[in-house]
């Protein structure tokens, strides 16, 4: 007792008053009625939905170009060509012709194709003569050309990179400089082309990468545990990515309110969105200060929270215990904030400025009694019901990104983020197309986008049967036996292409309609068809 009294005397007056105030609070049960909070008037700055002309018709490619416009791709080509020129100056040997805008779009098409048709390595997409060969990539671009563009893909100008690298170790160094030109373009497009509906969700998204950049993070609770962490704002109704930011790790500039607070505040742009929005978040972000400041901005918020957060009721009486029955509810209201605890398989803590504590909602759970499973109904707090309903927007967005992701192994960290930008553009384009027409699955949308990017027909022409490739005389046989061996002789296309020789032959391929040598010592017919 003496030790406790001594420590009590040493406690600061403000902290002691706060502790006593929290101890005076008592958790209420679902039988006690909570106040219904004032409903915020929903005043978006634009009509929610796609911000496009209703009279125009939009294809998958035209929607994709709203994110990767010809101007943005032209800048990408310019910086990529500049990177190659810099590499050549350093002594690298390339067979290179400047990449054009149309060729870059075809390159995007191949990346998306590889996301739909998974093979173990890039080389396998151009490998011929095997059971798992795919003919499409070779008709769009050679393997070496594809790899050359991949190696040199650059979103910023190399000369500007050099200037930024000189600042490394100082506060002026920009960790995201290599991705920022394209990132700013994509973020602006996401916010401009579509205006979200009322319910939004904030969460983290991981882009897989183990490069030692100083920005990669480890999150054991995520399916992708190592990589770049993105903070994402999505529309809960359809998973559209409204805005995002890339976390730079220990290089983050603190403002004094903490990273979770700053993240949500930066994503909730009142000038862009308007007022009256409801935003849902997990326990990484939720704090009484954040929710109070959001309500001052005319934004409602709801999210799971951690009990040790400052100004949360930590020592209140009548709290839930480990032995509390399933479905038990406790709540405390503190002005606009309502703190709710609910016992499911474990204790769930939620804080909200939108909902009352309990409105009579129920949930069904499978319960095992006497070796048999049965459905049983339990009461559920209103904030928990809404949280489960609207936090799914981020999950929907992540599922779309993973179905046919453009991500694959690469040596450059910034190329991983570039591939994620392609994923965002494709999934957001599909979401808008679904809002406008709703007549395509995601797979059908991606197939059409690939054919439009690559400039090909969606139907692949039937491959000729190998039985058609047989040697036949190049001309009608002469009745004069002295001229049989010489009539109809033409230059062999393989000898000319492979060796630069003008060898003449009377034989040609019936299917290919080209002349080819067919001799014991020179079988151009066989060599030619190996490459088909």
TrEMBL record:
Domain of life according to the entry: Eukaryota
Positions of the UniProt region annotated as Disordered: 1-21
Limits of the PiggyBac transposable element-derived protein domain: 59-430
PANTHER family in the cross-refs: PIGGYBAC TRANSPOSABLE ELEMENT-DERIVED PROTEIN 4
Name under which the protein is recorded: PiggyBac transposable element-derived protein domain-containing protein
